[in-house]
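Hi Y.,

Following your request, here is the sequence exactly as I used it, all 363 residues.
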Amino acid sequence: MQLSEITKHLEQLAPLAYAEDFDNVGLLVSHTNDITGILVCHDALEEVIEEAISKNCNLVVCFHPILFSGLKKITGKNYVERAIIKAIKNDIAIYSVHTALDNHQNGVNKIFCDALGVTHTKVLIPKQNFIHKLVTYTKPENVNQLKAALFDAGAGTIGNYDNCSFISSGIGSFKGNDASNPVIGEKNILQKEAEIKIEVTFEKHLQNNILKALFTNHLYEEVAYEIYKTENEHQNIGLGMIGELEHAMKPAEFLQFVKDKMECGGIRHSQFLPNEIKKVAVLGGSGSFAIKNAISAGADAFLTADLKYHQFYEAENKLLLADIGHFESERYTKNYIVDFLKEKITNFAIILSELNTNPVKYF
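Below is the corresponding structure, written out as tokens. Let me know if you'd prefer a different format.
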């Protein structure tokens, strides 16, 4: 298969526009376009690249980006440089999904919830500054065609609804100069026409597609339009997730349940509270920044990783705060990626890495 074909599926799995600004996602190493097989892993370490070589895979799809910060030298002095050198020398491409999949409504945190049987889920920290609004004006006879094209380009989706728009009518005026070629009226003559105002929202990364649809399907020579940035939260994109267990559990019972399901080597937690655990918030990976969000959302427990000593105080006797381990909280992500790719790409080698790349060991 061609690498470009596979990356299209990967961007459907985890749109790169969903990633956090600090992150480094997408194609990190690319030295070939003819792909013989795909190895999916958590971390694209040197030993994982060696595994890819042994299994005739020249594309490694990893969760964490092996290239995160800029490299000024590549001398093989550390684990990042050694992995990159090995990949380039053996014509192996590397692609990372990381926070693009973290922010997806079916991504890391939904996988986390599903592993624990947490249902009725919603995003814990909805993404902000991601929704834009298009306003344009056209003749009544052009409205249906134009709206349909905008919807096809991705506009008009709000939560669980699509084809959303607002229509209002009014009178538009315009006068073309000598260089104009008006579809309606004549040059240098003021024209007043009944027009329809169309308003639709869209995810900001779709703007080029939206404008292409607008210009292609509008009947005017000059298209009047405005695009606004909104402060609306995107309820289906964002970090973390919150939902409910089927049955409430006592704190000790709950943590043992989590330990078994997520195969944790150990769980660090705040003090037990008298209430049972029913409403659970999760955030795969480093999630200390979301403690207040979990409290505000009314969670009985918040599961995440990489908590520092003083951050356990932030539980404030309002919820059970538990650090289950970074790798453990994202444990099933690579399995999800494999299942997704196998559904999209049939009769092709898509292999789950056999290596456990968790750098944290338990005694």
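The longest helix spans residues 333-344.

Thanks again,
Q.
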